[in-house]
Specification:
single chain, alpha+beta, DNA polymerase, domain 1, 3 domains, 5-stranded mixed barrel, 9 helices, 5 strands, globular, RuvA_C, NA-bd_OB-fold, DNA-binding, cytoplasm, DNA repair
Length: 200
Amino acid sequence: MIAFVRGEVAAVGLTTAVVAVGGIGLELQCTPGTLATLRRGEQVTLPSSLVVREDSLTLFGFLDEDEKQVFQLVQTASGVGPKVAQAMVAVLRPDELRRAVRDEDVKTLTRVPGIGPKGAQRIILELKDKVGVPGTSAALPDGTTAPAAGWREQVHGGLVGLGWTAKEADKAVEGVAPQAGDTPDVGALLRAALQSLSRA
């Protein structure tokens, strides 16, 4: 298991980041909220989780240990793989997810692409005794900012990566554009875009 990755950010894409570690570039799948905190050339430490499949090794990177633990925990529920788990931590902060499971809030869980009412009920049933109480772990950092020039691409890429069509993502990006301002918070804009899509 690779518990964390520490090194210099070599590249930041729409859904991945490359961190240079000992002369090797490790590609990590990250949520838009995590990618928004990364800058090329900066030193970072990202908690990580390695998902092993017959035909692939995929490394996922996270803002903090709390997000990583939630990502790993939700995969213990039937029918939740790494892609859906990543969508869950992209849409819901760890405490939001804990609260939704504790309160049996199906509506909140179904905001995540790939989770329908039956899937949400199954997650609640299987995780209720495991997920813990909101506030028991460190919350994610407050909103992070990204250069204005790239927020549209990041939010659009994040939405497509989470399962929405390019057309739906275009519409959602235009819908949240008035909220961007001079220092756009990519994580907040993504959450707003996801909310608008789930309402639609």
